[in-house]
Design a protein that fits this description.
single chain, alpha/beta, seven-stranded mixed beta sheet, 22 strands, 32% helix, 23% strand
């Protein structure tokens, strides 16, 4: 009989925690999970999944207009936010049930309450129940950062954006990362007047400069406004009921909603980590080694709480590697190189590998190939919006070290292209591949 109640106790039932728990259980471990909110985590409950559903809904705004150019007699349409919101939240409920069932079907016990580490191998639940575990896995994710300016409580974050009762007429979005740009596109297409403010003068830091410039150009053309080099001074509610935002280097702005999209903070508070001896890094994330082990031998951490790469598929891979290593007798680590990513802006961006500037700094000799074109659908619809595909290659070997795209369906196209970059294929390999015509993706094998 084991000296512990469980072989593994996981704190947090997001995508990473669910994967680690169910695979560990499949290897014969006795596993329990504590989740104080809903099973599924940020991505499924209040992140990328419901956000992508809103992105789909937002695209109809232009699609319905464009349809007239393709011969469809489309009457003037009205948009029902409540219907979309409730349909999206209904599917979130379904997914919460699916994730819960997945754990239960794999023999994982679920505690729907908060858990705190209170001693060596000991966890205390909010109900007062105390359990022990041979291994503890922290997978509590991260939460939106909220600036500490006066009146910050008057704003919302992406968590609340899915639950609002109406689309605001005027929205101020703080930030310039992927969440800010995605919600800018969503709210704009739903009819709001959108302004983004950012502390610097750049969008989407980390993405290739050509794509960032193109998104800014397209966003401005659509009517989204930007205020750069702006810090919050404060927010106050006016007598008219709107929100007046004071900021540096710009005049005050009156809006109906302020959405903070200024980064995410690891969820480490109140977990008992300090008392347990678990070290945090300078950003407040749990410090782990290549096997996701913390400074305490029996405590591991995966996902956004470690602030390595804040992407759901990465957390899932970390969870899989943890289970393989600890319970599967198959020591595994995650390869963080060449991870593809996407921004579901309007239009979307997708990227894999090195940007042009990164490649020049690292490789010296670089060759860049580009295609700047209008999608066929946009040509017929009469839209001047241009797509940009960019391939960055090692100048000496021809190996493709980065691909960067902005345009319709870029993330769908990138998933396959990322395999080629990860595999180390060359520009010649792309050139030798026959194009599928007419498609946007064919530009990748026709780049000059």
């Amino acid at each position: 009989m084991s000296e512990y109640d469980y072989d593994l106790f996981t704190i947090g039932a997001g995508s990473g925690g669910v994967r680690a728990s169910r695979v560990s259980s499949a290897y014969g471990a006795k596993v329990a999970v504590a989740e104080e909110y809903r099973v599924g985590g940020t991505c499924v409950i209040r992140g990328c999944v419901p956000k992508k559903m809103l992105v789909y809904g937002a695209h109809f705004a232009e699609d319905l207009v464009d349809a007239r150019q393709f011969g469809w007699d489309i009457p003037e349409c009205t948009f029902d936010w409540i219907k979309l919101r409730d349909n999206v939240l209904g599917d979130v409920d379904r997914l919460n049930g699916v994730y819960t069932q997945t754990l239960e079907n794999n023999g994982v016990e679920i505690f729907h309450e908060r858990a705190t580490i209170t001693g060596p191998h000991e966890i205390t639940l909010a109900s007062g129940k105390i359990v022990t575990a041979k291994y503890i896995l922290v997978a509590t994710g991260a939460r939106p950062h909220v600036p500490s300016c006066p009146g910050h409580e008057l704003g919302i974050t992406s968590n609340e954006a899915f639950h609002i009762d109406a689309i605001p007429k005027r929205v101020l979005i703080a930030g310039a990362g992927y969440i800010a740009n995605e919600f800018a596109g969503i709210f704009h297409q739903f009819g709001a007047k959108v302004t983004l403010i950012n502390r610097s003068d750049q969008l989407l830091r980390g993405y290739d400069e050509s794509l960032r410039d193109r998104l800014l150009q397209i966003s401005l053309t659509k009517g989204i406004q930007f205020r750069f080099n702006a810090d919050f001074r404060g927010i106050e509610r006016t007598d008219e009921g709107c929100l007046r935002v004071e900021m540096t280097n710009h005049d005050p702005l009156d809006v109906d909603c302020v959405l903070f999209a200024t980064g995410r903070v690891p969820n480490v508070e109140g977990l008992g980590l300090e008392a347990a001896g678990v070290e945090l890094d300078d950003k407040g994330a749990i410090r782990v080694d290549d096997s996701s082990k913390s400074s305490v031998d029996h405590i591991y951490a995966i996902g956004d709480v470690t602030n390595r790469v804040q992407l759901t598929p990465v957390a899932i891979r970390e969870g899989q590697a943890f289970a393989e290593t600890v319970f599967g007798d198959n020591p595994s680590t995650v390869d963080y190189g060449c991870i593809p990513s996407a921004v579901f802006s309007h239009p979307p961006i997708a990227a894999v590998g090195m940007t042009e500037s990164e490649a020049r700094n690292k490789l010296g000799s670089v060759k860049v190939y580009e295609s700047d074109f209008r999608a066929m659908k946009h040509v017929v619809a009469g839209r001047n919006e241009r797509s940009l595909y960019k391939m960055v290659c090692d100048g000496n070997t021809g190996r493709v070290v980065g691909i960067h795209m902005i345009g319709p369906d870029a993330p769908e196209i990138m998933q396959a292209a990322a395999v080629a970059v990860k595999a180390g294929l060359t520009k010649a390999d792309f050139d030798a591949t026959v194009a599928i015509h007419p498609t946007m993706a064919e530009e990748l094998v026709l780049l000059k």
